[in-house]
Protein backbone atom coordinates (compact mmCIF):
# COMPACT_ATOMS: atom_id res chain seq x y z
CA UNK A 1 0.00 0.00 0.00
CA UNK A 2 1.17 3.45 -0.83
CA UNK A 3 -0.47 6.77 -1.19
CA UNK A 4 -2.00 8.72 -4.05
CA UNK A 5 -1.30 12.43 -3.86
CA UNK A 6 -3.75 14.87 -5.39
CA UNK A 7 -2.35 18.39 -5.29
CA UNK A 8 -5.60 20.33 -5.77
CA UNK A 9 -9.11 19.99 -4.48
CA UNK A 10 -11.17 18.27 -7.15
CA UNK A 11 -14.77 17.04 -6.83
CA UNK A 12 -15.45 14.08 -4.54
CA UNK A 13 -16.65 11.91 -7.43
CA UNK A 14 -13.04 11.73 -8.64
CA UNK A 15 -11.42 11.31 -5.23
CA UNK A 16 -13.80 8.45 -4.41
CA UNK A 17 -12.52 6.52 -7.42
CA UNK A 18 -8.96 6.87 -6.18
CA UNK A 19 -9.91 6.03 -2.59
CA UNK A 20 -11.28 2.76 -3.89
CA UNK A 21 -7.73 1.72 -4.75
CA UNK A 22 -5.54 3.37 -2.14
CA UNK A 23 -5.16 6.05 0.52
CA UNK A 24 -5.45 9.53 -0.91
CA UNK A 25 -3.61 12.58 0.36
CA UNK A 26 -5.60 15.49 -1.01
CA UNK A 27 -4.49 19.10 -0.86
CA UNK A 28 -7.94 20.37 0.02
CA UNK A 29 -7.71 23.78 -1.65
CA UNK A 30 -8.77 24.57 -5.18
CA UNK A 31 -6.99 27.91 -5.46
CA UNK A 32 -3.59 27.67 -3.82
CA UNK A 33 -0.99 25.08 -4.71
CA UNK A 34 0.20 22.47 -2.25
CA UNK A 35 3.30 23.94 -0.55
CA UNK A 36 6.50 22.46 -1.95
CA UNK A 37 7.75 21.04 1.37
CA UNK A 38 4.43 19.29 1.96
CA UNK A 39 4.49 17.93 -1.58
CA UNK A 40 8.03 16.59 -1.20
CA UNK A 41 7.12 14.97 2.10
CA UNK A 42 4.00 13.39 0.59
CA UNK A 43 6.04 12.06 -2.32
CA UNK A 44 8.13 9.93 0.05
CA UNK A 45 5.20 7.54 0.48
CA UNK A 46 3.48 8.03 -2.85
CA UNK A 47 2.90 5.49 -5.60
CA UNK A 48 0.97 7.95 -7.75
CA UNK A 49 0.55 11.67 -7.96
CA UNK A 50 -2.05 13.77 -9.69
CA UNK A 51 -0.53 17.17 -10.29
CA UNK A 52 -1.23 20.45 -12.04
CA UNK A 53 1.10 22.87 -13.78
CA UNK A 54 1.86 24.40 -10.36
CA UNK A 55 4.04 21.46 -9.42
CA UNK A 56 7.58 21.20 -10.74
CA UNK A 57 8.82 17.66 -11.18
CA UNK A 58 12.59 17.97 -11.09
CA UNK A 59 15.50 16.04 -9.65
CA UNK A 60 14.64 17.02 -6.08
CA UNK A 61 11.03 15.85 -6.46
CA UNK A 62 12.01 12.59 -8.15
CA UNK A 63 14.65 11.82 -5.54
CA UNK A 64 12.00 12.37 -2.87
CA UNK A 65 9.74 9.74 -4.46
CA UNK A 66 11.25 6.26 -4.19
CA UNK A 67 7.99 4.37 -4.83
CA UNK A 68 6.37 6.61 -7.39
CA UNK A 69 4.96 4.82 -10.45
CA UNK A 70 2.99 7.52 -12.20
CA UNK A 71 2.81 11.28 -12.50
CA UNK A 72 -0.54 12.27 -14.00
CA UNK A 73 -0.35 15.87 -15.17
CA UNK A 74 -3.67 17.67 -15.48
CA UNK A 75 -2.63 19.47 -18.64
CA UNK A 76 -1.61 18.62 -22.18
CA UNK A 77 1.63 20.60 -21.75
CA UNK A 78 4.29 19.01 -19.55
CA UNK A 79 7.04 21.62 -19.41
CA UNK A 80 6.72 21.45 -15.60
CA UNK A 81 8.10 17.91 -15.68
CA UNK A 82 11.58 16.65 -16.44
CA UNK A 83 10.16 13.75 -18.47
CA UNK A 84 13.51 12.19 -19.30
CA UNK A 85 14.54 12.09 -15.67
CA UNK A 86 11.14 10.69 -14.63
CA UNK A 87 11.57 7.92 -17.20
CA UNK A 88 15.08 7.27 -15.87
CA UNK A 89 13.40 6.70 -12.50
CA UNK A 90 10.96 4.27 -14.22
CA UNK A 91 8.04 6.58 -13.61
CA UNK A 92 5.24 6.85 -16.15
CA UNK A 93 4.23 10.40 -17.07
CA UNK A 94 0.79 11.09 -18.50
CA UNK A 95 -0.91 14.23 -19.80
CA UNK A 96 -4.40 15.15 -21.00
CA UNK A 97 -4.36 15.57 -24.78
CA UNK A 98 -7.44 15.53 -27.03
CA UNK A 99 -10.07 16.11 -24.33
CA UNK A 100 -9.16 19.80 -24.15
CA UNK A 101 -8.45 20.55 -27.80
CA UNK A 102 -11.76 22.09 -28.86
CA UNK A 103 -12.26 24.03 -25.62
CA UNK A 104 -8.79 25.55 -25.84
CA UNK A 105 -9.33 26.46 -29.49
CA UNK A 106 -12.59 28.20 -28.53
CA UNK A 107 -10.71 30.29 -25.99
CA UNK A 108 -8.12 31.13 -28.64
CA UNK A 109 -10.75 32.42 -31.02
CA UNK A 110 -12.66 34.21 -28.21
CA UNK A 111 -9.50 35.99 -27.14
CA UNK A 112 -8.66 36.88 -30.73
CA UNK A 113 -12.10 38.41 -31.30
CA UNK A 114 -12.05 40.15 -27.91
CA UNK A 115 -8.80 41.88 -28.78
CA UNK A 116 -9.79 42.62 -32.39
CA UNK A 117 -13.13 44.14 -31.40
CA UNK A 118 -11.83 45.70 -28.18
CA UNK A 119 -14.51 43.99 -26.10
CA UNK A 120 -12.81 44.40 -22.72
CA UNK A 121 -12.03 48.06 -23.35
CA UNK A 122 -15.62 48.62 -24.56
CA UNK A 123 -17.10 46.96 -21.51
CA UNK A 124 -14.97 49.13 -19.21
CA UNK A 125 -15.98 52.20 -21.21
CA UNK A 126 -19.63 51.49 -20.47
CA UNK A 127 -18.99 50.59 -16.81
CA UNK A 128 -17.05 53.83 -16.29
CA UNK A 129 -19.97 55.89 -17.59
CA UNK A 130 -18.05 57.14 -20.64
CA UNK A 131 -20.79 56.18 -23.12
CA UNK A 132 -22.15 59.66 -23.74
CA UNK A 133 -22.81 59.54 -27.47
CA UNK A 134 -22.41 57.48 -30.60
CA UNK A 135 -19.35 58.24 -32.69
CA UNK A 136 -18.27 56.94 -36.13
CA UNK A 137 -15.06 55.34 -34.91
CA UNK A 138 -15.95 54.76 -31.28
CA UNK A 139 -13.95 51.70 -30.18
CA UNK A 140 -13.50 50.65 -33.79
CA UNK A 141 -11.42 47.52 -34.13
CA UNK A 142 -10.26 44.98 -36.69
CA UNK A 143 -12.00 42.30 -38.71
CA UNK A 144 -11.05 38.68 -38.50
CA UNK A 145 -13.09 38.18 -41.66
CA UNK A 146 -10.72 37.41 -44.54
CA UNK A 147 -7.72 38.45 -42.45
CA UNK A 148 -4.31 36.85 -42.85
CA UNK A 149 -3.84 34.69 -39.81
CA UNK A 150 -0.51 33.07 -38.93
CA UNK A 151 -0.67 30.14 -36.56
CA UNK A 152 2.55 29.30 -34.76
CA UNK A 153 2.31 25.68 -33.63
CA UNK A 154 0.08 23.50 -35.80
CA UNK A 155 -0.64 20.70 -33.35
CA UNK A 156 -4.15 19.57 -32.47
CA UNK A 157 -5.03 22.91 -30.89
CA UNK A 158 -3.56 24.90 -33.79
CA UNK A 159 -5.64 22.84 -36.23
CA UNK A 160 -8.79 23.27 -34.15
CA UNK A 161 -8.20 27.05 -34.19
CA UNK A 162 -7.65 26.93 -37.96
CA UNK A 163 -10.91 24.99 -38.50
CA UNK A 164 -12.80 27.71 -36.68
CA UNK A 165 -11.05 30.44 -38.65
CA UNK A 166 -12.31 28.91 -41.88
CA UNK A 167 -15.72 30.18 -40.80
CA UNK A 168 -14.26 33.68 -40.93
CA UNK A 169 -12.86 33.01 -44.40
CA UNK A 170 -9.43 33.81 -42.99
CA UNK A 171 -6.32 33.16 -45.06
CA UNK A 172 -4.41 30.79 -42.86
CA UNK A 173 -0.67 30.32 -42.86
CA UNK A 174 1.29 28.38 -40.28
CA UNK A 175 4.73 27.66 -39.02
CA UNK A 176 5.61 24.48 -37.18
CA UNK A 177 8.71 22.34 -36.71
CA UNK A 178 7.15 19.83 -39.14
CA UNK A 179 4.65 20.21 -41.95
CA UNK A 180 1.09 18.94 -41.59
CA UNK A 181 -0.39 17.87 -44.90
CA UNK A 182 -3.84 17.42 -43.29
CA UNK A 183 -3.89 21.10 -42.27
CA UNK A 184 -2.72 22.07 -45.74
CA UNK A 185 -5.24 19.93 -47.61
CA UNK A 186 -8.29 20.19 -45.37
CA UNK A 187 -7.87 23.73 -44.08
CA UNK A 188 -5.96 25.30 -46.94
CA UNK A 189 -3.29 26.39 -44.46
CA UNK A 190 -0.11 27.51 -46.15
CA UNK A 191 3.20 26.41 -44.62
CA UNK A 192 5.55 29.41 -44.37
CA UNK A 193 8.85 30.26 -42.73
CA UNK A 194 8.73 31.92 -39.32
CA UNK A 195 9.89 35.16 -40.95
CA UNK A 196 7.10 35.12 -43.53
CA UNK A 197 4.57 34.39 -40.81
CA UNK A 198 5.78 37.39 -38.82
CA UNK A 199 5.86 39.76 -41.78
CA UNK A 200 2.58 38.82 -43.45
CA UNK A 201 0.11 38.09 -40.67
CA UNK A 202 -2.63 40.43 -39.50
CA UNK A 203 -3.13 38.09 -36.57
CA UNK A 204 -0.51 35.79 -35.08
CA UNK A 205 -1.88 33.06 -32.86
CA UNK A 206 0.68 31.12 -30.85
CA UNK A 207 -0.46 27.68 -29.68
CA UNK A 208 3.03 26.22 -29.32
CA UNK A 209 4.23 24.24 -26.31
CA UNK A 210 7.33 25.34 -24.42
CA UNK A 211 10.42 23.49 -25.64
CA UNK A 212 14.10 24.33 -26.11
CA UNK A 213 13.19 25.36 -29.66
CA UNK A 214 10.22 27.60 -28.84
CA UNK A 215 11.60 29.34 -25.73
CA UNK A 216 11.78 33.11 -26.34
CA UNK A 217 10.82 32.57 -29.99
CA UNK A 218 8.84 35.84 -30.00
CA UNK A 219 11.72 38.15 -29.19
CA UNK A 220 12.61 41.76 -30.06
CA UNK A 221 13.50 40.89 -33.66
CA UNK A 222 10.28 38.93 -34.10
CA UNK A 223 8.07 41.81 -32.94
CA UNK A 224 10.03 44.23 -35.14
CA UNK A 225 9.16 42.13 -38.18
CA UNK A 226 5.42 42.11 -37.48
CA UNK A 227 2.99 44.51 -39.11
CA UNK A 228 2.20 47.64 -37.11
CA UNK A 229 -1.43 46.56 -37.34
CA UNK A 230 -0.77 43.04 -36.13
CA UNK A 231 -2.57 41.42 -33.22
CA UNK A 232 -0.57 38.87 -31.23
CA UNK A 233 -2.37 36.12 -29.34
CA UNK A 234 -0.71 33.57 -27.05
CA UNK A 235 -2.56 30.49 -25.80
CA UNK A 236 0.58 28.26 -25.74
CA UNK A 237 3.07 29.00 -23.00
CA UNK A 238 4.24 32.31 -21.59
CA UNK A 239 7.95 31.62 -21.96
CA UNK A 240 7.60 31.34 -25.74
CA UNK A 241 7.44 35.14 -25.59
CA UNK A 242 10.08 37.57 -24.42
CA UNK A 243 7.62 39.66 -22.42
CA UNK A 244 9.86 42.72 -22.25
CA UNK A 245 10.10 42.69 -26.02
CA UNK A 246 6.31 42.41 -26.26
CA UNK A 247 5.82 45.33 -23.85
CA UNK A 248 8.31 47.38 -25.85
CA UNK A 249 6.53 46.51 -29.13
CA UNK A 250 3.16 47.59 -27.70
CA UNK A 251 4.60 50.79 -26.23
CA UNK A 252 6.35 51.73 -29.47
CA UNK A 253 3.35 50.90 -31.66
CA UNK A 254 5.28 48.13 -33.40
CA UNK A 255 2.16 45.97 -33.13
CA UNK A 256 -1.48 46.89 -32.54
CA UNK A 257 -2.53 44.78 -29.61
CA UNK A 258 -2.16 41.46 -27.83
CA UNK A 259 -4.22 38.86 -26.03
CA UNK A 260 -2.56 36.50 -23.58
CA UNK A 261 -3.91 33.46 -21.78
CA UNK A 262 -0.43 32.48 -20.63
CA UNK A 263 2.37 34.51 -19.06
CA UNK A 264 5.95 34.00 -18.06
CA UNK A 265 5.02 34.50 -14.44
CA UNK A 266 1.73 32.94 -13.38
CA UNK A 267 -0.17 34.30 -11.54
CA UNK A 268 0.81 37.64 -13.09
CA UNK A 269 2.79 40.09 -10.98
CA UNK A 270 0.43 43.04 -10.43
CA UNK A 271 3.32 45.39 -11.30
CA UNK A 272 3.48 43.92 -14.81
CA UNK A 273 3.12 46.89 -17.22
CA UNK A 274 0.87 44.80 -19.49
CA UNK A 275 -1.90 45.26 -16.94
CA UNK A 276 -1.97 49.00 -17.59
CA UNK A 277 -2.20 48.71 -21.36
CA UNK A 278 -5.57 49.14 -23.01
CA UNK A 279 -4.45 47.10 -25.97
CA UNK A 280 -3.42 44.07 -23.93
CA UNK A 281 -6.09 41.62 -22.85
CA UNK A 282 -4.92 39.20 -20.19
CA UNK A 283 -6.87 36.21 -18.96
CA UNK A 284 -5.68 33.79 -16.24
CA UNK A 285 -4.67 30.62 -18.11
CA UNK A 286 -8.24 29.47 -18.77
CA UNK A 287 -7.67 27.83 -22.15
CA UNK A 288 -9.18 24.50 -21.18
CA UNK A 289 -11.55 25.86 -18.56
CA UNK A 290 -14.99 24.67 -19.51
CA UNK A 291 -16.72 22.59 -16.87
CA UNK A 292 -17.12 19.56 -19.14
CA UNK A 293 -13.49 19.68 -20.28
CA UNK A 294 -12.09 20.11 -16.79
CA UNK A 295 -14.17 17.08 -15.72
CA UNK A 296 -12.74 15.11 -18.64
CA UNK A 297 -9.17 16.16 -17.84
CA UNK A 298 -9.54 15.09 -14.21
CA UNK A 299 -11.18 11.79 -15.19
CA UNK A 300 -8.37 11.07 -17.64
CA UNK A 301 -5.78 11.60 -14.88
CA UNK A 302 -7.76 9.28 -12.60
CA UNK A 303 -8.06 6.63 -15.32
CA UNK A 304 -4.34 6.80 -16.03
CA UNK A 305 -3.54 6.38 -12.34
CA UNK A 306 -5.94 3.43 -12.01
CA UNK A 307 -4.42 1.71 -15.04
CA UNK A 308 -0.80 2.18 -14.06
CA UNK A 309 -1.34 1.12 -10.45
CA UNK A 310 -3.05 -2.02 -11.77
CA UNK A 311 -0.01 -2.75 -13.90
CA UNK A 312 -1.43 -1.67 -17.26
CA UNK A 313 -0.43 0.86 -19.88
CA UNK A 314 -1.94 4.32 -19.35
CA UNK A 315 -4.26 5.87 -21.93
CA UNK A 316 -2.15 8.95 -22.62
CA UNK A 317 1.52 8.44 -21.82
CA UNK A 318 4.03 11.16 -22.51
CA UNK A 319 6.74 9.46 -24.52
CA UNK A 320 10.32 10.45 -23.88
C1 LIG B 1 -4.75 24.16 -18.52
C2 LIG B 1 -2.85 23.95 -20.25
O1 LIG B 1 -5.61 25.27 -18.57
O2 LIG B 1 -3.26 21.71 -20.74
C3 LIG B 1 -2.43 22.61 -20.70
O3 LIG B 1 -1.25 22.44 -21.02
O4 LIG B 1 -2.10 24.85 -20.26
C4 LIG B 1 -4.24 24.13 -19.85
O5 LIG B 1 -5.10 23.21 -20.38
C5 LIG B 1 -4.27 24.09 -17.18
O6 LIG B 1 -3.08 24.64 -17.00
C6 LIG B 1 -4.48 22.82 -16.44
O7 LIG B 1 -3.48 22.49 -15.51
Describe the structure.
- The protein has helices spanning 12-19, 36-43, 59-63, 83-88, 101-116, 119-127, 156-166, 181-187, 194-200, 220-225, 243-251, 291-309; strands spanning 3-6, 23-26, 46-51, 70-73, 92-94, 148-152, 171-175, 190-191, 203-206, 231-234, 257-260, 280-282.
- It is an alpha/beta fold and 320 residues long.
- It has a 7-stranded parallel β-sheet, with helices on both faces. Strands 2-1-3-4-5 form a 5-stranded parallel β-sheet, with helices on both faces.
- β4, α4 (83-88) and β5 form a beta-alpha-beta unit.
- The longest helix is centred in the C-terminal third of the chain and has 19 residues, at 291-309.
- The protein is globular.
- The chain starts with a strand and ends in an 11-residue tail after the last helix.
- The site of 2-keto-D-gluconic acid has 11 residues, from loops.
What would the keywords be for this entry?
single chain, 320 residues, alpha/beta, seven-stranded parallel β-sheet, 12 helices, 35% helix, globular, binds 2-keto-D-gluconic acid, D-glycerate dehydrogenase, oxidoreductase
